[in-house]
Amino acid sequence: MSLTREATDLNDFPARTEASACRSATLSRSASVLLRLCAAPEADLAADFAALSEDDWYDLVEQAIPKRVAALLDRALQRANCFALLPEECHDAMVHERRRLSMSAFGHMISLTDTISFLKSHDIPAIALKGARLAYRDYPDARLRPLRDLDLLVPADQAEQAQQLLISSGRYEIAPWAEFYGVEFGHQLPELVDRKHGISIEIHHRLNARDWAEEPHLVAMVFAQAEGFDVSGTTVLVPSMHANFLHLVEHATLHHMFENGPITLADLHFAAQTGKIDWPLLIAQANDMGLARALQLIAAVALAHGATWVPNTLLLHVPADLAGHLDVCTAAMLRDESLAEHASMLRGISLRKGQSPGWGAAIRAALTPAPLKLAGLLRVKGSNPLRWLAYPLWLFLRGKAYLAARRAEIEPGSAVQEVETLHWLRNG
Questions:
Q1: In 5-64, which ranges are continuous DSSP H helix?
Q2: Which of 105, 194, 371, 379 matches a 20 to 30 Å C-alpha distance to 45?
């Protein structure tokens, strides 16, 4: 099968509809360029750049930087010889971001190798998740794949030991923004900060969504198929190509409902372009892990914006209603980060209560706090009965957050649509 078919060839995609055909017309020019830049990073975007107005350029740069794709935009501009088209302020912002990313990449590399070496010296194996493999093995240049933090997966029975050893070393400390919890909550321990380089580090004992029943299969796959490679003289373990690809798919869909942004489209592109994916096997693994619809949906989103990596077999047999979920996924992918927490809260209320996020649902949610959330406010263990002393504060904060979410500039009904997409993904 070919990984380089023309992206416009959608004849074998039976879910294509008139709505999906006019999708690009509903997006701003800057949003369309941003999505195409990520879905097809090797494409020549000279004509797209030439069509941008000054306002479009401001929008494009203001979206690219926080969504961590400014380096890809910089690369595309240089290759198309279009850097001169940028307004002066946009030009200066891009140059500044280029310098910042170079310094950040160096800091992350040193922090990664130092932390891996430290844990190894205490006989704790650590696997660097997602971004590390992408940056150092899949992307053509590590600087094109900025790392926000370092996610390190360790065996669950060694997670708290690893966390304490790092803190006791004096180089790492609990991040000021971190909550207080142990392995009984979530998939990671409270965030750490490398005091020397200011890099955020997360010790994971699982991978992701707590209600993803097939998660243990992927965790086992990550450990069993871990691959080692050299980073500045240190052997770093990362997931195999298949394990990382499946983790990227789950992370973007079930866990974040596409709010982690269009960088995932670029991640999948560069992973697929290595030619190391056995597509029939990957599709079978996705089926076994309950990720068949997630894989098809994210592939369809990528294809709609110019991706060339999607194999024909992946979209030959898609559910008839897949196309109805493309627009809501694209909107979520473009959402401003400042609104992501609000949207997540509204989705959470809808998911738990099975209805749209109205006042009744908010009140019922406010009366049933998660014990670990209460414990986190008092910085005690989740089993400590003293946690209930935090209930009044939790209730106040919950109400304040809900009102902020209702006032946020989120499309009416988008939370309900996103919940419908999540149910669709999980029930396939």
A1: 18-21, 29-39, 46-50, 54-64
A2: 105
The domain total for the chain is: 1
Q: Are 331 and 427 in contact (CB under 8 A)?
A: no
Q: Detail the DSSP E strand segments found in 269-405.
A: none
Q: What span, in angstroms and rounded, lies between the C-alpha atoms of 370 and 311?
A: 43
Residues 209/225, Cβ–Cβ less than 8 Å: no
Exposure letters 275-287 (e unless 16+ CB within 10 A, then b): eebeeeebbebbe
CA 391 and chain centroid, separation: 32
Identify whether 369 is part of a domain.
no
3-state secondary structure 52-89: CCHHHHHHHHHHHCCCCCHHHHHHHHHHCCCHHHCCHH
* Whole-angstrom distance, CA of residue 190 vs CA of residue 204: 9
Q: Is residue 67 part of a domain?
A: yes
pLDDT tens for each residue of 255-310: 888 988 999 999 999 999 998 999 999 999 999 999 999 999 999 999 999 999 99
φ, ψ for residue 192 (rounded to 5)? -110, 160
DSSP conformational letter for 134: I
CA 416, CA 407: separation in Å to the nearest integer?
Answer: 16
Element (H, E) at 95: helix 88-121
Kindly report the pTM of this predicted structure: 0.83
- Residue-wise pLDDT for 376-396, tens only, equals 666 666 666 776 777 777 667
Q: At what angle do helices 54-64 and 29-39 cross, to 10 degrees?
A: 40
Asked if residue 294 is part of any domain, the answer here is yes
Residue whose C-alpha is closest to residue 264's, from 294, 210, 207, 302: 302
Which domain range does residue 122 map to? 18-335+410-426
Q: What are the DSSP calls for 241-289, one per residue?
A: HHHHHHHHHHIIIIITTTTT-THHHHHHHHHHHTS---HHHHHHHHHHT
* Assigned domain for 70 exists: yes
Buried b (16+ CB within 10 A) or exposed e, 59-70: bbbebbbebbbb
CATH no. for residue 246?
Answer: 3.30.460.40
Sorted by sequence, the CB contacts under 8 Å of residue 100 that are 6+ apart come out as none
Strand order in the sheet with 172-174: 172-174, 192-194, 199-204, 150-153, 127-128, 234-238, 227-231
3-state SS assignment for residue 145: coil
Q: How far is CA 152 from CA 135, 149, 163, 375, 420, in A?
A: 15, 10, 11, 25, 32
